[in-house]
Design brief:
Layout (H helix, E strand, L loop, with lengths): L1 H20 L28 H8 L5 H10 E4 L3 E5 L5 E4 L1 H4 L3 H4 L6 H4 L1 E2 L7 E2 L5 E9 L1 H8 L5 H23 L2 E7 L4 E10 L1 E7 L2 H4 L3 H4 L11 E7 L2 E2 L7 E2 L10 E5 L10 H32 L4 H25 L2 H20 L1 H6 L3 H21 L9 H16 L12 H9 L8 H19 L4 H7 L4 H10 L6 H8 L3 H5 L4 H42 L12 E5 L4 E3 L2 E3 L2 E3 H10 L11 H4 L10 E6 L11 E3 L4 E9 L17 E5 H10 L4 H9 L4
Parallel strand pairs: 12-20
Antiparallel strand pairs: 1-2, 1-6, 2-3, 3-10, 4-9, 5-9, 6-8, 7-8, 9-10, 10-11, 13-14, 13-19, 15-16, 17-18, 18-21, 19-20, 20-21
């Protein structure tokens, strides 16, 4: 289990070493300088640099063009991007944005994850419960009002509370007046605040989903890599009052995509970036936060991957977790790789040094921001001091074994039963008590699965706290792996229903003072964690205010020449289709269908990870294999951009963003157009698949005509 983590670390160190020395020419770190381009090009729609577009591409978008593009784009559910692609409410996004819903929508005997889905008629489009899309209608600047309110607070906690209060009031009043969904967006770490108004569509129906294999060819191995050979798309439709939405704002379809060097634009909602943070803050993320998160995702990934390989018949049950934890694992490994590159950190230090120098040159700015960086460093130092126990004792939010859940329930029971009945929560009062007790131990436990989850927890927390931590010794006796599982279970009184019943028959104090390994670890660790949580909340409030001041300093010196960090809100990013150098060779700007079958055959036609659904295994005669299936571009995207349409200046879809390359993961902190690439499915390739593989004539006609026939 630890072997893969060791290999990941070795990969990071190897690439870092190559990056530092240069493959062909040594890099002198002392001469590395920052560029304002390092902050990327994720532009908000109320501040698009149209003049720069004109100088760079010979195309200056008009106000009408930007308004139409803004309202054609959508935020998809809670975390992806999408867009209208016909006047009849047809929506396009990524397969991986919607695949988690497929098994709950299918009827008995269907397997949409394996085989895909297509509605032959409008009536056959399937309602997707609880799914919504949001269309950005307008943006209002509310910076002055929020800053004035925050200035009334004396402490950092008061400032945060005042900010949250006025933001809530803005949202409440705007929603009542407009009937729209509203939110306040923080830009430049708090230098600017905007109120966003969204129209929400809540009746969303599935139109077409391809099979999993073509939408995720290469699985977790190809994730965050390029060249790629997959078609990661899915189509939905928005309805209102039982009819397809009629919208004048939508993209049209480009029959043959875009050419290399042609200006193209990604329109979507990038999740978050931290490109304005101080160097000490980035070092803290590298040394503590991301290192701990990588350990968590790696250990949980191994749980599901082990079961996936052992029980192929459980593929549909386990697949999303394999892909989800694999995605998180590689994401944090890539961020660590980026922050371990000396030239990246040298660029960040170069920028920070110049910013501080420019602040010190101005008496006004020097007074306004005196001690700013020292104060940030002090907060980071205190966060570091408490980080091991905070992360090691943090209640499990992901991957908790059933035994931990049982232990939490028993502790809650004992704590509640110490109270007078009138003071207990309803679950522990007379009429509900027996049912609550009955539900403490589940009807069945998958022992193998839950033992693997214990193993994952033991490995993760030991990597954070060390094997000599006193509370870990209580639970795992300084052991990891299967030995830790064996020790924890052998010292537990909650592994069977019979044992739990005996424990629950004791008095509350006897339960809480029992020798059960899980119960004692939780009680003792939570007492420490809760104290640390209070302290760290205070520190994080202080850091939030300091980072807002840092954002103000950046804005005072550089103005809006710097693109703001991503905030899970709509942005437009410019770029071109372009290859790049990697691994001592060069990646093509576009990939073709030839590569899809090359991977399939080269890996022995095995299902995992480059297998093909039977419908794909033999290329149809009509399909020209030289047609592009995907491309790489210099647009600036991060997680959350999945499902973003990529358009040309005619507002035609030329591609669908579904990923970035490995080098793009450092884009969370810095954008380097040399090798940071958006990875997309090509519109031409998608259309050829719809025509000749899936035979979706109704959908093909709607895309070409931009409306239902």
């Amino acid at each position: 289990m630890r072997l893969l983590k060791t290999l990941l670390l070795a990969l990071v160190l190897m690439i870092t070493a190559n990056a530092q020395t240069g493959l062909y020419k040594p890099i002198d770190i002392d001469t590395v300088k920052y560029s304002l381009n390092d902050f990327g090009k994720m532009w908000t729609f109320d501040d698009v640099p149209v003049g720069m577009f004109g100088n760079k591409y010979g195309f200056e978008p008009s106000f009408e063009w930007l308004a139409n593009v803004q309202k054609s784009a959508l935020q998809f559910g809670g975390g992806c991007s999408a867009a209208f692609v016909s006047e009849d409410g047809l929506i396009m996004t990524n397969h991986h944005c919607g695949r988690g819903q497929l098994t709950s929508l299918q009827d008995e005997g269907e397997n949409w994850l394996r085989d895909g889905f297509y509605a032959e008629s409008l009536d056959e489009e399937r309602v997707v419960p609880n799914l919504f899309v949001d269309q950005l209608i307008k943006i209002v600047d509310v910076t002055d009002e929020i800053k004035e309110e925050m200035a009334k607070g004396e402490s950092d906690k008061e400032k945060i509370a005042l900010r949250d209060s006025i933001e809530a009031r803005f949202v409440r009043d705007a929603e009542a007046e407009s009937g729209l969904v509203c939110k306040v967006v923080t830009l430049y770490k708090g230098e600017k605040y905007s109120l966003y108004y969204y129209k929400r569509y809540s009746d969303i129906r599935l139109v077409m989903a391809p099979d999993f294999q073509i939408a995720a060819t290469g699985w977790d191995w190809d994730n965050f890599t390029y060249p790629r050979y997959e078609l990661d798309f899915m189509f939905y439709r928005a309805f209102e009052n039982g009819n397809p939405v009629k919208t004048e704002h939508h993209f049209t379809w480009s029959e043959k995509g875009a050419n290399e060097g042609e200006p193209i634009f990604v329109v979507g909602r990038p999740g978050s970036t931290d490109r304005l943070l101080s160097v000490s803050n980035l070092e803290y993320l590298r040394d503590v936060v991301y290192t701990n998160r990588l350990a968590l995702y790696e250990d949980l990934y191994q749980v599901y991957f082990e079961l996936f390989n052992k029980y192929p018949e459980r593929e549909s049950e386990l697949l999303n977790n394999v892909m989800g934890y694999g995605n998180g694992r590689k994401s944090y490994a890539g961020r660590l790789y980026g922050l371990s590159k000396p030239e990246l950190m040298a660029k960040k230090m170069s920028f920070e040094n110049e910013l501080r120098a420019k602040v010190n040159e101005s008496p006004e700015l020097s007074e306004k921001y005196k001690n700013l960086w020292a104060d940030i460093d002090n907060v980071i130092s205190e966060l570091r001091e408490t980080s091991a126990k905070y992360y090691g004792y943090q209640p499990q939010r992901r991957g908790a074994s059933a035994y931990f859940k049982i232990a939490y329930s028993i502790i809650d029971y004992a704590e509640e039963m110490k109270k007078e009945e009138a003071d207990r929560s309803p679950l522990y009062q007379k009429e509900n008590l027996q049912n609550t007790i009955k539900n403490i131990f589940p009807d069945s436990i998958d022992v193998e699965f839950n033992n693997l989850l214990i193993r994952a927890h033991a490995n993760t927390v030991t990597s954070i706290l060390g094997k000599d931590d006193e509370l870990l010794k209580m639970l795992y006796d300084g052991k990891t792996g299967n030995e830790a599982v064996k020790f924890a279970l052998s010292n537990s009184q909650i592994t069977t229903k019979e044992k739990v019943d005996i424990l629950l028959a004791l008095t509350p104090d006897e339960i809480l003072n029992s020798s059960d390994s899980f119960i004692q670890f939780i009680i003792n660790s939570q007492a420490i964690y809760e104290k640390l949580e209070v302290k760290r909340e205070e520190l994080n409030n202080k850091l939030t205010i300091l980072n807002q001041k840092l954002g103000e300093a950046v804005f005072d010196v550089f103005g809006d020449n710097i693109s703001p960090d991503a905030t899970s809100t709509l942005r437009i990013s410019d770029g071109v289709i372009k290859g790049y150098e990697y691994n001592g060779t060069i990646a093509p700007a576009k990939t073709t269908f030839y590569g899809l079958w090359d991977r399939y055959i080269s890996f022995g036609k095995k299902t995992y990870p480059w297998g093909l659904h039977p419908r794909w295994q033999t290329p149809p005669a009509e399909l020209d294999l030289s047609i592009p299936i995907g491309f790489a571009s210099t647009n600036d995207i991060v997680g959350g951009n999945s499902g973003s349409s990529i358009i040309n200046k005619n507002m035609e879809v030329v591609g669908l963003a579904h990923d970035g390359n490995l080098e793009s993961l450092a884009g969370h902190f810095i954008f380097d157009e040399t090798n940071n690439r958006t990875v997309a499915s090509d519109s031409w390739g998608i259309m050829e698949a719809l025509k000749y593989i899936y035979r979706t004539d109704r959908l093909v006609n709607e895309l070409f005509n931009s409306k239902i026939d």
